[in-house]
Design a protein that fits this description.
about 210 residues, CC033 protein, elongated, SNase_OB-fold_sf, OB fold (Dihydrolipoamide Acetyltransferase, E2P), alpha+beta
Length: about 210
Amino acid sequence: QGLSAGAAVTAVLLLARSLRVTTKFTSALEIPAEFVEKNVKLRGKLHHVTEKGLEVEHIPISIPFITAIQRKWQSEGLLLIRLAGVEMAPSGTAWLQRELSPQQPLWFQLLGREGSALECLVLVNKGRFLSLCLNEELLSQGLGRAARIEGLPHESRLYWKLHKRLLRAELKAWKKNKGIWKEEKKSERIRGNISSSKLVQRLKEFVSWFRGSR
């Protein structure tokens, strides 16, 4: 009897675990806090790119018998995913809309949750064995600025590991004058030239005043 009870408990625990990994999440609030804390990586399919972020359909792990039952009562909905650690420029949104195809498969690693939005690292496949991190790619193209990674403890090892990667990508764009950095450096040069012109004008006025006062 003891063995039977133990086997029953094990079966229940395995079923509960299976239900969690096969559940289709349709809103950020449905995702267990444990998943976010452990930075679980989930699979999804892109539907829309908006100014607020990526609207993604979660694609859970499929286990034939359990998945067939769950589909009967699971609701429909899309997750709002933001690229963690990236302050995206308008040109970044346009780039994502251009580069990502509808129904694009992707993976998103949970880093934090803020209201109805998820802060994530987003990966898309490029070829058979390569994947591209959209967070880093946007920064390396000069389509945004590195920012604080919301949701991760600021003192954690993972935070600084990821933040370092994002800063390195941003520096790459800055060195090559890409995207927003090209425009910013151009503006700085213009401001510098204007300041120099004002200084020259002030010097001329001073010389004229000095000569007139003699």
